[in-house]
From TrEMBL:
Location of the Vps16 N-terminal domain: 5-416
Record note on quaternary structure: Core component of at least two putative endosomal tethering complexes, the homotypic fusion and vacuole protein sorting (HOPS) complex and the class C core vacuole/endosome tethering (CORVET) complex. Their common core is composed of the class C Vps proteins VPS11, VPS16, VPS18 and VPS33A, which in HOPS further associates with VPS39 and VPS41 and in CORVET with VPS8 and TGFBRAP1. Interacts with RAB5C. Interacts with STX17, MON1B. Associates with adapter protein complex 3 (AP-3) and clathrin:AP-3 complexes.
Protein name: Vacuolar protein sorting-associated protein 16 homolog
Species assigned in the record: Poecilia formosa
Gene Ontology molecular function: actin binding
Predominant location: membrane
Membrane-related topology note: Peripheral membrane protein
Coiled coil segments of this chain: 638-665
Recorded GO CC terms: CORVET complex; HOPS complex; late endosome membrane; lysosomal membrane
Keyword check for Protein transport: yes
Family (UniProt): Belongs to the VPS16 family.
Protein function: Plays a role in vesicle-mediated protein trafficking to lysosomal compartments including the endocytic membrane transport and autophagic pathways. Believed to act as a core component of the putative HOPS and CORVET endosomal tethering complexes.
Span of domain Vps16 C-terminal: 515-828
Annotated localization: Late endosome membrane; Lysosome membrane
Amino acid sequence: MAFITANWNPLGDAFYRKTELYEMFWSLRDGLRDSLIAAAPYGGPIALLREPLRRSPSTRPQLEIYSASGVSITSFPWKSGPVVYLGWSVNDELLCVQEDGTVLIYDLFGSFKRHFSMGQEVVQSQVLEAKVFHSPYGTGVAIVTGSSRFTLATNIEDLKLRRLPEVPGLQGRPSCWAVLTQDRQTKVLVSSGPELYVLDNTSCTAVYPPGLSPQAGSIVHMSVSFSYKYLALFTETGRLWTGLSNLQERLSEVDTKQAATPRQMVWCRRPRSQQPSVVLMWDRLLLVVGSCNDTIQFPLEDQSVLVGELDGVRIISSSSQELLQEVPLVCQDIFKIASMAPGALLLEAHREYEKSSQKADEYLREIKEQNVLGDAVRQCVEAAAHEYDPDTQKALMRAASFGKCFLTEFSPDQFVTTCRELRVLNAVRESSVGMPLTHTQYPALMTLQVLIDRLVYRQFYPLAIEVCRYLKIPDYQGVSRVLKHWASCKVQQKDLTDEAIARAVCAKVGDSPGVSYSDIAAKAYECGRPELAIKLLDFEARSGQQVPLLLKMKRSQLALSKAVESGDTDLVYTVVTYLKNEMNRGDFFMTLRNQPVALSLYRQFCKLQEPQTLKDLYNQDDDHQELGNFYVTSSYRDKRLEGRLAQLQSAVDEYNKAKNDFAAKATEEEMRLLRFQRKLDDEKGAGLLGLSLQATMEALMSLGLHKQAEQLYRDFRVPDKRYWWLKLKSLAEKEQWEELEKFSKSKKSPIGYLAFVEVCMKNNNRHEAKKYVSKVTPEQKVKAHLAVGDLEGAADAAIERKNEAEMGAVLSRCSASDRLLMDKLNRARVTAAKK
């Protein structure tokens, strides 16, 4: 703490410092010489390709991927064409741009994912230079070819190549160039000798940096800031021009007194920067140039690489990695020598307090007198967030906690949030993890979700789970997502048996919310482990998730069993439909025979949609009863009589095979009826075909064909009661009263004579109805008399039978004018009651 400002270097009104991030774990025999190097921003991985243009088939270049701390992730020989450029996408995918314009994409662990081409014409002219850039649309690639033409792809996920206009007078490789992103448009800034051009989709425009000295000479190097807002130009005379990237305003122009072209040039600035600067690197010199014309020089012992970050520059060498950045203003206020800022006084008060010195009280009194204790606490918390050293963080946070004790109204939210964030950041900064995120980068890069995704992507599962639990992220967003990714990687381990992996996955995942065993099983199947996939599917509680994968794996029998067990008819239908399309008919039917539920559901489907298939099913099973039913049903759909009779005859044959005599006889009678109907249709034009037996008899009687109706009555042994009812209604409706009377006298009525009375009254013929009252049985006399409106006759019949209920029924029908009749009935009721 006493020497915290020892590595501060003044630059104008600000200070710059170099903080060591890591001593690199890698062991590079030749350092970083003769290598293509790409380091992803936000503490991302490092890719290194040695001797990228080597063409000897006997010794291939080696592509190596390391974490930011130099821990080896993967390494493999490069077997494709010569590589011009390496770069990282926003998703930490490695892009390798080859001379022939092919861009190969690998994941963090060196697994090939896909490739695309920058255009057919590039194959002939070759790629001279390339750049990978990040735009609002995603990760893009820009190249310049041997024919001096530029081609852009602004988003590799949605590839659309744009060939930019020619640059006047440009032959071969340009002096320097950069990609600009302005107002959601991607442009290229090109230096060709003394000229500077901006290329967009349709035009090539000559531009001139405002305020650049005429003696500056040609531009030989350029750099765009991390946010694409600022531009730096280095000329052949050693002058450095800085300004806005739209070339509308100059910030500064400085003579670096270095004539040689720098190997790298990177902007170094932070949000709300006091003194933005540009870092230039030569073989043995690192030069920081501010817009104030001041410079800082750092000697370099090893060849290094600069990586631009949101709030500084990472300097990577073969032995170490450092972060060069402007010291945040709040840190300057606290740690500057003789600072009287509130945070500085609070920090000193806490130091004295730990020494049990009374000076602590003096410092606190001074802060309280100025009424800035709240500001002092906030300064300490903010400064702790910007410090990389855990000991410095703790000292500042303890000072803030000490100051909070003397405040009655102070929100602890900032303090608590910063504590949590620092614990997480310190955990991921560990060299074993190798993600040197700063507190400024953390919210700019990602939500907490993205940080966890990055840990998961690097397979730091225990740390990811601890972070989720520490920050109390809901399981389905945190721990469950980590476990799902872990399980998907676990199934790819070839050194473990299927049984061991299934047990391990089940033990670890359990019933965690949001984790689908079917997704894990699908990954196992993709990796060529179908048996493991089936074992994992046994842990899946939802059949709807099991079945699709089983079908994909061609495990149709198991899929059908799972669907039936689920009780979900839609799922069963899905499997049955799939099997029907995938299997030959014989195997399909045999499969269904082993699953009665599925077979039953399929039969229901066929009844509505595929009747012919239903017939084949019954034939396959020798189900003669159902075949007979099928033929009967089919006969009703046949409009031709011959076809209908043929179908019915087939039904008779099947019923006989099924030994169902009743059904066979009923079907034969249906055939006889059809023939009878056809005969009458031909002779009389009666239109009887297709009617039921009863409807046929009714139609015949309504047509006056009583003899034919009587023939049906005898031939089909129609019950007497049904026949008499049909004829009674028919004659009454046609008002054939004489015929009706004859019919009533033909023999004793099986339906009685009350029916005649009621039917006649229904057809409004009281006179005819009265003829049949005398024939009615004594039990029905009262009803008959009441039906024809003969109250006196009804009363006499009721009194004769001495039935109180019948007397009551007659009384209920009497009106006031029937006083004598009512008295008669009442006397009879009294007499009947006495007895």
